[in-house]
Amino acid sequence: MSLTVWNVESIKDVAEMLGISSLGDEAASAIAMDLEYRIHQVIQEAMKFMVHSKRTVLSNADISSALRTLNVEPLYGFNTSRPVEFHEAAVGGGQNSLYYLDDEEIDFEKIINYPLPKVPRNISYTAHWLAIEGVQPAIPQNPTPSDHTTGEWAPKGPAAVTPGATAATKEASNGISSMENVEVKPLVRHVLSKELQLYFERITAALLDVSNSELRHAALSSLRDDPGLHQLLPYFIMFLSDSISHNLNNLVILTTLMQMAWALLDNPNLFVEPYVQQLMPSILTCLVAKRLGNDPHNHDHYALRDLAAYLLGIVCNRFGNVYYTLKPRVTRTVLKAFLDNTKPYTTHYGAIIGLKTMGKEAIRVLLVPNIKVYEILVIKSFEKGNDDDKYEANRCMDALYDSLLLLRDDQLSTDKTVPPNARGLLEKIVGNLMTEKIMEKGDKDLILALVDENNPA
C-alpha cells in the first residue's frame, strides 16, 4: 500500500502522455513517493529564500531560486502580478467539476502591427561634480531638491499607498503620513572657533583703517599666505561685496578691497571656485562704475580700474573652463557698457581695458569694428567738452591704442614693408584719430597687423 499523497493513477496518466503504456503499480508507487520527496525538497529550499527575504508568503521567485539551487531546470515563462483566476467549466453527467485558467486572448495581428519601441542610447560614461564643498550643484545629473523631499517624506509602513489605491485614499494616506513623518529641523549655524572670529574681526578692521597703511599691508600679506583660512573664505567674500557697495566714495578703501580680492586669489590654500559668482560683481563694480571716489577731478580711480581689469583677467582665465558661460557673460557686460553713448568716459575706459583682458579675439571682433564709430563721440568732446572730458576721452583713446598693440603678430616676416596707402586703409578701419596716433608712433607691426587682417589679399 502506497503511503504517498499522490495517486498511482495520476502517475500512470502522466506516463501514458509520455508514451509509456506498460507502467506497473509498484513502479508507479515508487515514482509517486520520489515525486513527493522532490516536491518537499523544493518547497523547503523555497521557504529558506522566503525567510531570508523577510516575507510570509511564498512566491514564484522563491520556487525559481530553489530550483536553481538544486540544479534543476527552471520554470519557463513570465511572471505576472495579476492573481490567478480559475473558472469552473460546466460538465454534465454527474462528473467532477473541471476548472481552467481564464487567460486573456491576444490578437497576433495587433501585436505585429504595434509600433516598435525607441532604440535605447548607447552606453557611455561621463564625469560630473557630485558635490562641491559639501553642496550638490544644480545640474541634470544630480537629484533635484524635490526628489530629496519626496524620498524622505514618502509614505512608509502600513500607511503606504498601494498602486491600486483610489485618489481619495492616496490623498488621505499622504496627509496622514506627512503629518507623522515630517520633522522640522532648526537651521544649523556655521560654528567658528574664537580664534577665527577674532582673526576675521582684526583683518576686516585693519583693511578699513585708512590711517594705518602698515597694518593694511600686514593684513593683506596674511590673507595671501595663511593656509588656514578656508572656513573664513565665504565670510571674506561677503565682507568684500558689502564693503564695496558702501564705500564707492572712498578710493583708498576700494583699492584695499581689490587688493584683498587679489590676495585671496593668490592664496594657494584657498578654493575660490565656488565663490566666483559672488566675487565677479565686486570686480565689475570697480571696473565700470560711473564714479569712484568723492572728487570728480581726481584721476586716481584709473589705477583702481586697471587693478580691477587685471583681476578680471585672472578670474576669467583661471575659471573660464569650469564656468563655461563666465567669459561670454563678462564680455557681453563690458561690451554693452562700451557701446552705450550715455555712459561717461570713466565707464568706457573700464569697458575697454576689460575687453582687453579677454584676449586678441575679443579685441579683433568687438573693439576694432567699433573704434571708428566711437571716434565721433571723442571728437565732440575734444571740440565742445571741458578739460575733464578731454582728459577722459584721451585716456579712452590711449586705452584703445594699448588694446590694439595685442594684435601685433610676432611671427610677421621682417621683409614686409608698410604699403604706401597704409594711412588710407587705417582710416577706413579705425578712423582718423586712431590712425594719427598709430602713424605718430610708427609701429610697423601694428600697421601690418591691422592692414593684413582687414585686407588679406
From TrEMBL:
Cite the SMART domains for this sequence.
TAF (SM00803)
| Primary site of residence | nucleus
Alphabetically sorted, this entry's keywords are: Nucleus, Transcription, Transcription regulation
**Keyword Transcription regulation attributed:** yes
Q: Where is the TATA box binding protein associated factor (TAF) histone-like fold domain?
A: 5-68
Tell me which Gene3D superfamilies the record gives: Histone, subunit A (1.10.20.10), TAF6, C-terminal HEAT repeat domain (1.25.40.770)
Q: Which SUPFAM superfamilies match?
A: ARM repeat, Histone-fold
Instruction: Please give a single GO biological process term from the UniProt record.
Output: chromatin organization
Family assignment from sequence similarity: Belongs to the TAF6 family.
Its recorded name reads TBP-associated factor 6
